[in-house]
Amino acid sequence: MKRIKIKELLATAPTGQPVAVHGWVRSFRNSQFISINDGSTLQNLQAVVELNALGEDTLKRITTGACISVSGDLVASLGKGQAVEVKVKSLEILGDCDPEAYPLQLKNRPSLEYLREIAHLRSRTNTFSAVMRVRHAMAFAVHKFFNDRGFYYIHTPVITGSDAEGAGAMFRVTTLDPAKPPLDDKGHIDYKEDFFGRETNLTVSGQLEGETYALALGEIYTFGPTFRAENSNTTRHLAEFWMIEPEMAFYDIQDNMQLAQDFLQFLTRYALDHCAEDLEFLNKRALEEDQAKPQEQRSELTLIDRLKFVAENDFQRLSYTEAIDILRNSNPNKKKKFQFLIDEWGTDLQSEHERYLVEKHFKKPVILYNYPANIKSFYMRQNEDGKTVAAMDVLFPGIGEIIGGSQREERYDRLVKRVNELGLPEKDLWWYLELRKYGSAPHSGFGLGFERLILFVTGMTNIRDVIPFPRYPGNAEF
Ligand code: 4AD
Ligand code: MG
Q1: How many domains does the chain have?
Q2: 3-state class of 139 per DSSP?
Q3: Does ligand 1 lie within 6 Å of residue 452's CB atom?
Q4: Would the ipTM clear 0.90, i.e. be above it?
Q5: Residue 211: inside a domain, yes or no?
Q6: Is the C-beta atom of 409 inside 6 A of ligand 1?
Q7: Per residue in 406-443, pLDDT tens?
């Protein structure tokens, strides 16, 4: 008999027709009622075993976590809690599960910290299956948004010879023997002997390569894994994360900000429209977590209200300079937690500043633009004031920076000068600089951290819980 997924089955009228279902046992009550989940939905299917229909041996093997296949008739359920159930005619154990050893028993709800240690099994929980279904829907929506607007998906390399952010936090890629690497005449490691004949690393961003295609195809985006060897042990950073980077010819910073808002609003709306069941579950989960916190730390809006708010309201746009003025004048109650350390124009904002602007002052997402050149990357377009660049960061409630982007410096002389001022290797950037020699054009782009988006949409609070196998300092077990 053809297997049917539980999600599909629950939407079918129970006319007594035969069905076959495969899935994992969530519970088995009274030697009769098996609750099965197959990952297609949060809802479990009840399969009812007739008394004495199965042998003692089989009954013993129907344990939480075991994988089984059942077939029987789909009928209306008399019990509460489900509309339909399957009257089992035959049952096969596909994979046994030792109930003594299985770490996911229903009795004790495991903590998220513990589940990180069993990342190969946490996929079986409601929380992680819901998060990953939402993650899937968001990945699909990313492609839909850009495809509908005529953007082309460009695959940029994972192994690169350039340092896109000029920040230096990269993972080296090498095939040299660490015990006895070849040395040059100065005694340094000779990367000419390495696989690619030069130093290479895992990419921190596909932007620079993306620009080459924007200046040919017009509007493009990348969506791939990126890597940062920063030693940041926070709830917002991963060493391996996925980034979406659109890059557009003929867009200025204003066009760029508008696209960022449209994109984030489309994604939140898409989640509300397509992930209702999972979001309701995650909403409840977030509420429970919130209730456990002290009053003053609780969110004013529920997860679903937060998503609706973002989908329906314009983001606040203001310049870095305006933000600094607000922060300087805000130090409202002199309580320690609001001691903003904004002494001088030109310092980077800390997350407490960003949170104040978004959560307390404007109470909506904020796009900050025109940052001081000194705290931003070399490729950002220099403004006429000689101090700022056409950078933009989108700040979200509960998340902080979700997008970083800019208009790019398209003027060859200005860009070369900046590269040299910052002591960056002009010889490695020769191809990037050439784009400004051969038919340069104004262009802009940004990067959305995919996991930060998923944090926002699912209401989860630790970025390690929204990617199947998180990479962070000291952790690459799975
Ligand atoms: O601000 P970032 O570093 O910008 C860039 O990489 C640009 N090249 C993007 C562009 O203009 N095309 O990173 C962009 C976004 C951040 O706003 C954040 O959401 C996310 O990527 N991000 C991280 N997410 C998880 N873990 C990390 N370590 C992250 N670093 C950045
Ligand atoms: Mg940034």
Answers
A1: 2
A2: helix
A3: yes
A4: yes
A5: yes
A6: no
A7: 999 999 999 999 999 999 989 889 999 999 999 999 99
